[in-house]
């Protein structure tokens, strides 16, 4: 069963749309972004969410102290690292982390194991920002890749139209979406519901053997 993360949450209302539609995780962006949210606002949203929802904080080149502070204040389950954090930096972290890696060509996948961590995230390297660009990469790169010791999160340009193909090709542990569930730059209830419904439908097809 593919898990779903709805990222770029800035309002409790949008978080609840995600929860009610069946999301497994929500993401708060603390990096420089139009989706940036303050620790205080994220903490207020976090405290109102059901315990079983994963809270994931998105950072770019934050210090260990900043990561730890956010983890505690927002009650984050993971920090997601979208900057130039090195494998050595990641491996010294004493908090749960997910390293995000930009994939421009197939060889970019080779470094994933070096980062360690329970999960790794692959995103598109295309676009002006460190993430949240709404652009995808060639999922065929991942067709014969299985990261047995790391759970794979697929991100980058996902939407209700393409997430089925993406899951079919990559079989990720979790899909992560931000731009694809927005209208006019803000989270859209209907798009969140449609995206999650689409993922649930694909899961059913895979489990029933209809989708090979
Ligand atoms: O969403 C942002 O603004 C952002 C800023 C800096 C780093 C990461 C960011 N978001 C992450 O980017 C990917 C892909 O998002 P999209 O669906 O293509 O818009 C996702 O992991 C977000 O968590």
TrEMBL record:
Which top class of enzyme applies to this chain? Answer: isomerase
The answer, when asked if Amino-acid biosynthesis is one of the entry's keywords, is yes
The UniProt GO MF terms for this protein read: phosphoribosylanthranilate isomerase activity
Q: Does the keyword Amino-acid biosynthesis apply?
A: yes
Can you state which reaction this protein catalyses?
Answer: N-(5-phospho-beta-D-ribosyl)anthranilate = 1-(2-carboxyphenylamino)-1-deoxy-D-ribulose 5-phosphate
Q: In which pathway does it act?
A: Amino-acid biosynthesis; L-tryptophan biosynthesis; L-tryptophan from chorismate: step 3/5
Q: Per the database record, which ranges form the N-(5'phosphoribosyl) anthranilate isomerase (PRAI) domain?
A: 4-197
Keywords per UniProt: Amino-acid biosynthesis, Aromatic amino acid biosynthesis, Isomerase, Tryptophan biosynthesis
Q: What is its EC number?
A: 5.3.1.24
> According to its UniProt record, which protein family does this protein belong to?
Belongs to the TrpF family.
What protein name does the entry list? N-(5'-phosphoribosyl)anthranilate isomerase
The species is Rossellomorea oryzaecorticis
